[in-house]
Fold this protein.
Amino acid sequence: MKTTTLLGCLLFFGTFFGIGQELALVRHDDRFGYINRDGEMVIAPQYEKADSFSEGLAPAMSEKKWGFLNKNGEWAIQPTYDRVKSFQSGYALVLKEDQWNYIDPSGNVLETPVQEKYYDFENGLAFYRIEKKIGLINTKGEVVIEPTYDVIKPFVNGHARVRNNDQWGMIDDKGKVVIPIEYDEIGDYSDQAIWARKGESFGLVTGGDFKIITGVDKIWDFHEGSKLTYARSDKQVGFIDTNGNWAIPATFEKVRAFNNGLAPVYKDKKWGYIDTEGKQVIPFMYRDAETFADNGLAPVKEKKRWGFINKQGNMVIPAQYDITAGGFSLFQKNNPKGFIDGLARVKYEKKWGFIDEKGNPLGGTWYENAELFSE
């Protein structure tokens, strides 16, 4: 009994840790496999095509057919499909014999009222089209919102932009209209404030009210955790707060978001960094610059290559890398550049891999391609 119990525990914890383990898709000798965050090859490169893990399963191709792998490199769903997409909200889209369907991790087909185009589930909802109108279904295959909108954009924190008759508003994930459909443009949801445009006037929607900001001709979305976003006036960019007041005057040609108390800004053909008071903290001296990661390191470009500086402006990892995303990541919205959980995806001498915060390559190995870690 003790032996059986111990074996059961080992299997349970082995499965548990396998599920929680992040893996990165890599290509070696023109085949795809997966490494862990220690740089170990846990699934050998053997697949013709593959994609990153999502919800514990990864699409992979064998003998011209697609299936799904688990993190032990076993076929959780056999390769019998012509095309597949990643699992989202417990379901994946698969194409077989010219028919798209949603399947669960056991390969069971979800019955839905969809008759036209199929869309990925996201946060438990998927678009549902009849003729030229869009609604929503849930993961039970039930209609949440009848097809009544011309456009529904992807949900952000439980809210989505919707359009009817060239006017925009916003709904929540229950279909309730939370911002009236009366704007010419509207930004993504933020718990800080949401930008919008009526006619030629730009402003912020807060508490159900639209506050116009005089002289502004563009506003960007508020980033998570920041009470400042950037706005443009007379071809110059600065930062406004959630009340629409200029926190930092519009004196820059380009800017990027604040993180870790600093933001990259562009002026006189060079990038530098300012703090939330608008004070220059790191001189304007770089060809390009990205936001600081939570570990206090930011990618900056000198000449043709990227390195990493700390918040004091010291180059702590030499400028010898490329950081532009490639492969599947190239098409992901807001694909992050720089450090994520202690590792940065970089390209070195035509090979891709990861470096730690001291610039050491993960596992000492470089690949033809490497995607971000995921579960």
